[in-house]
Write a structure and sequence with these properties.
This protein is α+β, with helices and mostly antiparallel strands and 238 residues long. Helix content is 47%, strand content 23%. The protein is built from 10 helices and 8 strands. The strands form 2 sheets. Strands 1, 2, 3, 4 and 5 form a 5-stranded antiparallel sheet that branches. A 3-stranded antiparallel sheet has the order 6-8-7. Strand 7 and strand 8 form a beta hairpin. Helix 5 runs antiparallel to helix 10, helix 6 crosses helix 8 and helix 7 crosses helix 8. The longest helix has 27 residues. It is globular and about 55 Å long. It starts with 9 loop residues before the first helix and ends in a 6-residue tail after the last helix. 42% of the residues are buried.
């Protein structure tokens, strides 16, 4: 019989009681410090992270120095699915975008639980597929949609994952989020502010009109959300 909700993290709360017990003794809580690097591309990811609050940005670094975000992981999911299911070598960097805290455990423990329980492994696979769906949509979005619609999408997604309408994001972070130049971000953020969708000042963003942002965003926000709902069937995030 499942117990009461154990965690604000969607992956942990989705586990059956027996599956949760496979990892419960190995979980500990850590702070997610803004801009801290959890793993660099090519390194071995040794620990999985399951945010309760805060957002982790997955970033691809290109040869000329550009950094582009390909996905975000927040309280809905887990960083470490691919490492636990396959090769532990990181295919991208993982950086804390929004500060908070998370449960964490060794990737080896996560892999052992997946090997021991088919239902645990199935849940892990579904979370990995959800992140993959986000990565695919982000690639298409950055290639085809306007900077304004991409920034609206990312702000909406960050709001959902962090549970807060007040964010501290540098221009560089926002440029990485949408694959654009910093000067473009400044112009578009001012446009969204003039439309009264956000308040923006020196990296401090307050979302004041979710409906307006939703109408400005491209279809990618709703598409990713629908994929997550289909794959994870998460409980409502307040």
């Amino acid at each position: 019989m499942d117990s009461a909700p154990r965690s604000p993290n969607g992956f942990l709360s989705a586990l059956a009681a027996d599956d949760f017990e496979l990892i419960r003794p190995h979980l500990r809580t850590v702070d997610l410090v803004q801009e801290s690097v959890l793993v660099e591309v090519g390194e071995t990811l040794k620990r999985a992270y399951l945010p309760h609050r805060g957002v982790i940005s997955l970033i691809v670094k290109l040869a000329r120095g550009e950094h582009v975000q390909i996905a975000m992981i927040g309280r809905d999911s887990i960083l470490g699915t691919f490492s636990a299911l396959g090769d532990a070598t990181a295919l991208n960097s993982a950086v804390v975008l929004v500060p908070g805290f998370a449960s964490t455990l060794d990737v080896d423990r996560l892999r052992a639980a997946a090997d021991q329980s088919a239902t645990f492994r199935s849940t892990l696979v579904r979370h990995g597929l959800a992140v993959y769906a986000q990565i695919q949509q982000t690639a298409g979005c950055n290639a085809s949609h306007t900077v304004e619609s991409r920034l609206a999408r990312c702000l909406l997604h960050t709001h959902d994952l962090s549970g807060s309408g007040k964010l501290v994001l540098t221009q560089e972070s926002m440029a990485q989020m949408i694959g654009a130049r910093r000067n473009s971000v400044s112009l578009v953020a001012n446009t969204l502010q003039q439309a009264n969708f956000i308040r923006y000042s020196r990296g401090h963003i307050e979302i004041t009109n979710l409906e307006g942002l939703s109408k400005t965003s491209c279809e990618c926000y709703a598409t990713v959300k629908a994929q997550y709902n289909r794959l994870l069937q998460p409980r409502c995030l307040a």
